[in-house]
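Pipeline run #58 for the internal structure catalog. This entry was flagged by the ingest filter as a single-chain record with no existing model, so it goes straight to prediction. Upstream metadata was stripped on purpose; only the residue string is passed forward. Reviewer on rotation: M.T. Logging verbosity set to normal.
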Amino acid sequence: MINFSKRFFAAGSLFFVIFTGPVAAEKAERARVEYPGKFSRPPSQGKNYNTWKDATGPDVGEEKIDPRRLPSRVDNSTRKQYPPIYKQRWGTCGQFAAIGSIFTYEMNVLNGTAADTDATRFPAHFSWNMMNRAENRGSEAYHGWEVAKRIGIPTAKTYGGVRLDKIGVWPNGYQIWREAMEYRVSGYRYSPANTVDQLNEARGWLFDRNQQKVRKEAIGGIFALDGRMGELKKVTKTIQDGEYLAGDDVWIRWGPSGNGHGITCVGYDDQVGYDVNGDGKITNDLDLNGDGKVTLADWERGAYIVVNSWGQNWSKDGKIFLLYSAMIDSTWKRGNYLGRAEVTRYVPLRTLRLKLACSDRTDLRMSIGIASDNDATAPEHEFSPEAFNGWPLFREGNAGHVPIAGPEDKTPIEIGVDLTTLFKKLGAVKDEGKLFISLSGAGTGEFEGVLYECGIRNYDRNGEFLHESKVRVKGKDFGKMPIHLYTTVDNLSRSRQEELGARKSFQKRRGANNAAPN
């Protein structure tokens, strides 16, 4: 599918006339942010939850788009930053798109690295096992991006591969959780692609993220898509002989039935077309659907390039074209939207290392607090890590009512929790303070937990390990009645300037080939 035809340049000239013509005729809705249904952000956070708040790049619709500067074809899957085309196992399509493909690609773009080894690839199963109830269940792209925002994603090398051979397994090893803290999503967005203006914004993102840079290589972003895959034979067509890229496959619509399936949009090709209405012509200037106007829904030429997670042998090379007009489907509103993510590198300065076991990780409750007074009986600031409180963010898609290690596995695991933000909340630098840790069980069923080890780890502004302060664990067992730990901590707060210095210094050595951190 990636082979260019010699007809490309001639077709490109003809297409440009067709492409710009409908823009004047159609009173297009402008490119905008939109959160449709429950698949684009966690409902638990409410309608005002801004998923792009911490991102630094331009938001959807902020940049003026000039379609004349955009090339006729972009395929980011050919870049060194893009990982190989995977073959998913179980209901992991959403995470193979969001993390295995998009997060991996974006992190390699940020790091200036190639996704050619597990040291620079990121696992689909880490985020999937966080919210799949320890069952073979599907997930949304935002599930993975929220996991990456809140706890991060480890490399496939440290995790043990892009995918595992068991469902519901949580990693055992502080270094895995610690490495995950470094690789984060700073923001994500969904936007419709129903009009020419919205299409041009999407093409601009795929080309150079709508950020034109003089004398610099344009490296575009990619998108998550939610397709409907039932009865695909009815909508999968082969480009006719004599046409541009004849013999390649193209989806002219979403499947007429079935459930959602996460796929990745890696580019576009304005020349690809198919005679959808069978009139012997491929047009973008005829009212094919009979609504009295010519819109993007009538286009027969122009397509997204889509990567599936069904292996490299599917559709010849694991990729397929999707007509621009196929996105406009009133029967499958999920398929009308494109999801994008921005990634960042992060420097944890304080972490908590715990070794524990429990009978039900969804019913586990963990709270961590801090106070500036050594004699305080209650914390001044407190937080409850999502992963160790049943992932309330995801509501129904929780951690599963299984032991913390995974189904039928009662062994303890060693985990890590980032404390940097908590320590920052005290503001002014203190010589000493008091840390509070509480563990207990919730729910109506029986619950048993055991805490084996606890330590506070410290890192310098370059992310290098300094030392660990072990916390004495007196009573190891906890259940519905909580266990409380208290400890004095030194050098309680770092200034905002030092944190910014840490970020800047860390970015200089941000190559993902570094050894797993302590």
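catalog note: The longest strand covers residues 257-273.
catalog note: The chain has two domains: 8-40+52-343, 347-508.
status: ready for reviewer M.T.
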